[in-house]
Amino acid sequence: MSQPILRLINRMTIDPLSRCWEVSYAKSAGYAIMGDGNGKTIRCHKLAYEFFVGPIPEGMVLDHLCRNKGCCNPEHLEPVTNAENMRRGLLGVLRVPDTCRRGHTLLDAYVTPAGVRRCKWCRKDQRTNWAR
């Protein structure tokens, strides 16, 4: 095994719920980075993917399917075009939430006349507390 991959594995922890491989290295824009031993900085997810899966295809970038930029689990990485990676990233940012701030499900939310989704449970609590 190469020296960088051994260092990566030694500093890795696996989240039991998400199965993300987290490493305790510095972060750059959310991505775990480390030195390669030759004075260059490498992204840990690329190192793990290339070691466990193989080379990243020409013109492709790795998309974190788990949406965790610090994850190095090759099963959570998919080579895609940069345009597809950007589109997926925007979908994550523009995603409609499925819970309110208090954690109630918004599957049965009501919609105000202005078109805003509101949690019916929080509204019920608010009305109950107001009536006291």
The structure class reads alpha+beta
Distance between the termini: 68 Å
Please write the CATH class name of the largest domain. Answer: Alpha Beta
| Number of E-type strands | 9
Shape, per Cα inertia axes: elongated
User: Which fold name fills CATH's third level, the topology of the largest domain?
Assistant: Homing Intron 3 (I-Ppo) Encoded Endonuclease, Chain A
The proportion of residues in beta strands is 15-25%
Our count of helices gives 4
The Rg value, from CA coordinates, equals 21 Å
- Low-confidence stretches are none
What is the average of the pLDDT values? 84
Outline the structure in words.
By secondary structure, the protein is of the alpha+beta class. The protein has two domains: 3-94, Homing Intron 3 (I-Ppo) Encoded Endonuclease, Chain A, CATH 3.90.75; 97-132, no CATH class. The chain has helices at 3-10, 44-52, 82-94, 120-131; strands at residues 12-14, 21-23, 27-28, 31-35, 41-43, 61-64, 77-80, 110-111, 117-118. A three-stranded antiparallel sheet has the order 3-4-5. A two-stranded antiparallel sheet has the order 1-2. A two-stranded antiparallel sheet has the order 6-7. A hairpin with a 5-residue loop joins strand 4 (31-35) and strand 5 (41-43). The mean pLDDT is 84.
